[in-house]
Give the backbone structure.
Amino acid sequence: MNRTRLLMIGAVALFLGAFVSLFVYKNLQGRGSSSNEPGNDVIVAADDIQVGARIEEHDVRIVKYPASALPAGTYSARSKVMGRGVILPIAKGEFILPSKLAPENAGSGLPSLIPPGMRAVSVRVNEVVSVAGFVGPGTRVDILLTGTPNGSSEPQTTTVLQNVAVIAAGQRLERNAAGDAQNTPVITLLVSPDDAERLTLASSEGHIQLALRNPLDTRQDEVAAANAKGLYKGGTPLAAPPPLRPHPVKLQKTQPPPPSPSVLSIEVYQGDKKPDVVKFPEQGSEDPK
């Protein structure tokens, strides 16, 4: 009797456990299916894509992402990105966004990196001029010129351009992943048309030197030219002429006119004659003339 009762209790417990487990499973499955959003096709990078490359078929793949997880501007068709030049590095699995691609029909390579209104000018450098090879794509430099101006007998050094972007070192358009210094004979700079003329003239007039600067420091400093005399103690450095100042105007003080003396008038009557007027100066004042 007791054994039969225990078997019945065990069977009921197993049934209740199975029922509760099935109920919990169905509930969790329903919640999961209700939170899933339909996936949208989106283009991502199938491998790392370097700056200046042209996107080809093997560079991208299509994956599905929930619409709420997609950034603005993603592409869903391969035809929208095929043949476009890359102007910023794209990592594997990263979304292909318009901000990382050159405009349509702009090509690839170096021309695609030049913004409208700007020019790319290359200058010949060596290990010293290129700051021991640390001047590379993405860095910013100042251009210094050392030469002898017309009418002068001693050389001078002056800052020709400041805060100029380097877009290529040799034929490399991207930074070295290891961060090592790379010596290249040519550095390509991004400048305006006016600065392109000044840079070309400076390259032919004397010796140019690149000064590497912090990319966060965009201040334009007023730097006077330096000459040999300023390098030695007691020498007179070449400085910019002081600004012209107007000569002070001296104001002449004028003495106010002396106050007129006070006069006391008295009328004197004599019979029926017309009264005579007699004037007397007041006390403390001079006699009237």
Remarks:
- The radius of gyration is 45 Å.
- Residues 2-35 form the longest helix (34 residues).
- Strands lie at 39-45, 60-66, 119-124, 140-147, 156-169, 186-191, 207-213, 226-227, 263-268, 276-281.
- The chain has two helices and ten strands.
